[in-house]
Amino acid sequence: MPSGVSRPKKTSADTLSPMWALFGRKKKIKPVRDGRRERRKCPLCGEDTTFIEVAIEKKYTAYVVVDLFNTESTGFQCGACDEVMDLGDTHEPNLSERENKKLAKATAKADAERARKQAEAEKARKRQIREAAEQARAEKAAKESQLDDDLAAMKARMGID
After folding, report:
1. Start-to-end CA span in the chain (Å)
2. CB 49, CB 78: distance < 8 Å
3. I want to staple 99 with a disulfide (CB 3.0 to 4.6 A). Which of 24, 53, 54, 95 is the partner?
C-alpha cells in the first residue's frame, strides 16, 4: 500500500460469525377415548392384531423452547409393534371360521338396518310429497272458492244475474 493511504477499519458488520438455528419436532401419540378398534394384519410386523385409533400431535419448535406451530391428526397403532399408520395401509386379518361367521352375521345385521332406514326414509319422503300435493290442492280449491265469491260479488254490484 502506498504511504499516506490509510487502510479502512473493519467494522463488526464485516466480521459476522455464522448464526445457528436449532429446530426440532416432538411427536405425542395418545389413544382416542372411545376410539375405533379394528382387527387387522400389520404390514410391518406381519401380526394379526388389534389396531387402536390414536391422536397424533406434532409440535415444531425453534431453539428447543419456542413453539412454532402444532399439527394434529389421527391414525391407527398396531398392538404388536406400536407402529402408527392409516388403516388403509393394513391388510385383512386371517380370521378363523367362527370369526368369519360372526363377521358375516354382523355385516348382514348392518345391511338389514341400513335397508330398514332407507325404507323408512323413502316412506317419509313419499308421505311429505303426498301432504304437499294435498296442501296444494286445498290451496287451489280455496283460491277457486275465493275467485267464485269475488265474481259473484261483482255480478251482484253490476246487477247481472
Report:
1. 129
2. yes
3. 95
